[in-house]
Design goal:
Layout: E1 2-4, E2 8-10, H1 19-27, E3 33-35, H2 39-46, E4 51-53, E5 59-60, H3 65-80, H4 93-111
Parallel strand pairs: 3-4
Antiparallel strand pairs: 1-2, 4-5
């Protein structure tokens, strides 16, 4: 483990498939903010009171997680059957700005501003 004063703590995990997700799940506490595009991880975090935000600024909440996970399941099922779906669109400056606004709004809400 290494600490960098400008960016926080660096943690190295095993190279196994879900090692990073498991680390995050085991160490994220209620009211922490986690940025992830993994909807499965987001659903587990949200159910524990952790705030989950996508890199594009989408806020994941408990109310819509069943729908999000259903579409994730349908897409995975199509891929397994040989149908290739389009990947995510290219990340844009608009996406970056949307993330910044959503993140600042979340921080303000948590700070009570």
């Amino acid at each position: 483990m290494q600490t960098n004063p400008t960016s926080g703590k660096w943690v190295y995990v095993d190279a196994e498939k879900e090692a990073a997700d498991l680390y995050i799940l085991n160490h994220a506490a209620k009211q922490d903010i986690v940025v992830t595009q993994d909807t499965g991880l987001a659903s587990m975090l949200v159910s524990r009171g952790v705030y989950a935000l996508s890199p594009r600024g989408k806020y994941y909440n408990d109310d819509e997680m069943n729908t999000v996970l259903f579409f994730r399941y349908v897409s995975a099922k199509e891929r397994r059957s040989g149908r290739h779906t389009k990947g995510p669109k290219a990340f844009t400056e608009e996406d970056r700005q949307h993330f910044i606004q959503a993140f600042e709004k979340m921080l303000s809400k948590l700070a009570g501003i």
